[in-house]
């Protein structure tokens, strides 16, 4: 190496400083993760170079073999990890190690809980794994040269994990990256060959790149004592160095599957389930797909990078190949390795290749089958899946017509007969509990579970023991609009249109309903006059048993939950008048019917109307007038 030049001292961005402080002072629950992260980064760097070299073999500079080397020095208290991958330029070093511009650090810090064990599991999930080095090291030195750069354009990055870092140019003959960790006193356990080999086998046995360590370290050290002239230690491969997905399922242990997931997903938690499959015939490919146990921080950003890792004949092609799974399965991780695609495949080609459509359909079905199997075999794990990813899966009902029925079978809801707000009831389970003569699946949509559970629209259903789905997620009304029916049974909003209660014959006859309408015909006309500008019409209610009144959406109108969501999103909507239903048997309605003072009648009618709005979760246009009218009635009652 020649003399270093252009040395600069630069400061970390604020979030990076916070992260470094956290690594140094807080996350000690699982120190060995530093090595897993550095090996994973080295493997990624080699995969990227392998792919680029397909079109530009000169990048390899005559060196076709790839490897990751791990060395340690007990005297200097250092561990060094070296790869011959893609390397970095000086600007890339500053961007990737100094500003953490693309790592999701802000979201990482926001999600911290204060629990060391839980927080350490977030490291890989948020892409900040390199900084795990500072859990064990007081100083980190990175020397690197990009594959496309000259030897004179190498770069050295040095930091002690404080407020700044040094960066300088150096001459580096070898491409790739070398990371040297100067260990803290309490991390000397890692200055042991057996300890390091154990960690590599635990976390990186499945990495397709050979991981090398010095052979027979103790013997080498003894030889060095006897013959200081021998300075060429022999290295040996300590991992399997074969792609795990190429092995038969019977040869892969559960632990190996879990560790491979952690490697490709940069996650520290075990997946909920996985599916390993080899397809032969017209198309030949292998897939290994995982369902994570926790949602990523950017799950709700539909524009975030997503997709499977794509390999062609065991050669890495690209990360995040989104063409193989639909958007509503964006949480799925894994790999697909095809024997049929060309090695020079691009994202544009993937979008046009008919073979991709066949693979996408098969992989989508395999994910849904895996979820169905999980739901049947382990209800507790499926409930965990639903909490994390249920709302995203609901998107599939509208986006994937082919698999709509299969997705519908995976949906879970809270119901009016549930003791908790957990969404743990399937539509198939609902059908099994339906009354013999019940023809519809009933649901109510509201902004929260409590509002749905106490909706006045449920009163007659609760009285008759008819179960109702309680929908409180923002996506739910949109969901049922696309689902429409399940297993031949239509879905019916209990707050929409006329209530056709075929199930209730024998208890509430149509003659009784007509009689109630006739007895209150004068009241209904007076209410139409008073509320005419606010309602479509007024009628007696079949829904109510305890409440005096409620509002009902017309059969072809948009539901109120959807209207509120669109309004919050800034969309302008035309005014929609609804049907005002009154309970003919409620004392307030009886009193209203008997009221002869028109001014008092108007005030009480408006109070009932505003109460109906509040009960469904809508906002009042004039809360002050409602409070004033209500106070006047309270004073009258107090005066009585």
Number of strands: 22
**Uncertain residue ranges:** 100-105, 120-127, 503-509
Q: Over the alpha carbons, how many angstroms does the gyration radius reach?
A: 33 Å
Strand order within the widest beta sheet: 1-6-5-4-7-3-2-8-9
Beta fraction of the residues? 15-25%
Number of helical regions: 24
Overall 3D geometry? Answer: elongated
Oligomer: single chain
Look at the helices and sheets and give the structural class: alpha+beta
Largest sheet: 9 strands, mixed
Beginning-to-end CA distance, first to last residue: 100 Å
Helix content percent band: 25-40%
Mean pLDDT: 84
Explain what this protein looks like in three dimensions.
The chain is built from 24 helices and 22 strands. A hairpin with a 4-residue loop joins strand 5 (154-159) and strand 6. With 640 residues, the chain is an alpha+beta fold.
């Amino acid at each position: 190496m020649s003399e270093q030049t252009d040395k600069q001292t630069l400061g970390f961005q604020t979030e990076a400083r916070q992260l470094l402080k956290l690594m140094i002072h807080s996350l000690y629950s699982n120190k060995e993760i530093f090595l897993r992260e550095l090996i994973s980064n080295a493997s990624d760097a080699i995969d990227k170079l392998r792919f680029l070299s397909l079109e530009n073999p000169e990048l390899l500079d005559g060196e076709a073999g790839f490897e990751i080397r791990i060395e340690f020095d007990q005297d200097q208290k250092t561990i060094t990890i070296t790869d011959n991958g893609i390397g970095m330029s000086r600007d890339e070093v500053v961007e990737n190690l100094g500003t953490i511009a693309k790592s999701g650090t802000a979201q990482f810090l926001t999600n911290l809980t204060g629990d060391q064990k839980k927080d350490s599991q977030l490291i890989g999930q948020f892409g900040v794994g390199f900084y795990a080095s500072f859990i064990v090291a007081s100083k980190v030195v990175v020397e690197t040269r990009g594959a496309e750069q000259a030897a004179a354009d190498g770069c050295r990055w040095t930091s002690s994990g404080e407020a700044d870092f040094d960066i300088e140019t150096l001459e580096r003959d070898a491409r790739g990256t070398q990371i040297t960790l100067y260990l803290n006193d309490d991390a000397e356990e890692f200055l042991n060959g057996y300890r390091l080999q154990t960690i590599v086998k635990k976390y990186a046995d499945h990495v397709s790149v050979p991981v090398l360590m010095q052979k027979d370290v103790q013997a080498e050290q003894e030889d060095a004592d006897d013959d200081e002239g021998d300075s060429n230690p022999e290295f040996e491969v300590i991992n399997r160095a074969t792609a795990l997905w190429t092995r038969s399922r019977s040869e892969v242990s559960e632990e190996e599957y879990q560790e491979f997931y952690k490697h490709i997903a940069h996650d520290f938690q075990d997946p909920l389930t996985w599916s390993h499959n080899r397809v032969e015939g017209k198309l030949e490919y292998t897939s290994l797909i995982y369902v994570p146990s926790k949602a990523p921080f950017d799950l709700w950003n539909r524009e975030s990078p997503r997709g499977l890792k794509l390999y062609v004949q065991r050669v890495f092609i690209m990360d995040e190949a989104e063409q193989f799974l639909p958007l509503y399965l964006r949480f799925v991780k894994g790999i697909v390795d095809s024997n049929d695609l060309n090695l020079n495949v691009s994202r544009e080609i993937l979008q046009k290749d008919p073979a991709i459509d066949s693979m996408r359909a098969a992989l989508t079905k395999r994910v849904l089958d895996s979820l169905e199997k999980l739901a049947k075999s382990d209800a507790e794990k499926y409930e965990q899946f639903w909490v994390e990813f249920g709302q995203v899966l609901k998107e599939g009902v509208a986006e994937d017509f082919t698999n709509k029925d299969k997705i519908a079978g995976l949906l879970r809801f809270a119901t009016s007969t549930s003791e908790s707000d957990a969404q743990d009831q399937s539509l198939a389970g609902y059908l099994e509990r339906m009354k013999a003569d019940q023809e519809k699946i009933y649901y109510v949509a509201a902004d929260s579970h409590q509002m749905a559970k106490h909706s006045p629209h449920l009163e007659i259903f609760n009285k008759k023991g008819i179960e109702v789905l309680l929908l409180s997620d923002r996506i739910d009304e949109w969901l049922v609009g696309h689902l429409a029916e399940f297993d031949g049974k239509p879905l019916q909003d209990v707050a929409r249109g006329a209530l056709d209660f075929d199930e209730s014959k024998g208890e509430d006859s149509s003659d009784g309903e007509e009689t109630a309408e006739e007895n209150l015909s004068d009241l209904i006309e007076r209410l139409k006059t008073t509320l005419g500008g606010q309602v479509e019409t007024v009628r007696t209610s079949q829904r109510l048993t305890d409440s005096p009144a409620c509002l009902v959406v017309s059969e072809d109108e948009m539901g109120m939950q959807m209207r509120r969501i669109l309004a919050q999103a800034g969309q302008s909507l035309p005014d929609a008048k609804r049907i005002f239903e009154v309970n003919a048997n409620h004392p307030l309605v009886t009193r209203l019917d008997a009221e002869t003072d028109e001014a008092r009648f108007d005030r009480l009618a408006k109070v009932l109307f505003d109460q109906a709005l509040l009960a469904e979760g809508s906002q009042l246009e004039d809360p002050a007038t409602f409070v004033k009218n209500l106070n006047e009635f309270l004073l009258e009652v107090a005066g009585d």
